[in-house]
TrEMBL record:
The lineage of its organism: Bacteria, Pseudomonadati, Pseudomonadota, Betaproteobacteria, Burkholderiales. GO terms for molecular function: porin activity. Residues 3-44 form the Porin domain. This is Porin domain-containing protein. InterPro entries: Gram_neg_porin_domain, Porin_dom_sf. It comes from the Bacteria. GO terms for cellular component: membrane.
Length: 64
């Protein structure tokens, strides 16, 4: 199981008001063999001046 969280505060920007951003990611890595794994990750992102957004990824990795 993989997880990550980030909070960013930007104040006094040249393009507008102060902004807060919260990002949460969770993922899972499954070993298929000694050199190959399958992984998935989901992310939720929220900026205080915009609505919440979500994204996800799925991949297969092979080590040579």
């Amino acid at each position: 199981m993989l997880a990550g969280y980030a909070h960013t505060r930007r104040s006094g920007s040249l393009v507008g008001a102060d902004r807060d951003r919260n990002t949460l990611s969770v993922g899972y890595d499954y070993l298929l063999s000694k050199r190959t794994d399958l992984y998935t990750i989901a992310m939720s992102d929220k900026i205080n001046t915009a609505s919440r957004a979500a994204s996800f990824g799925l991949g297969l990795r092979h080590k040579f």
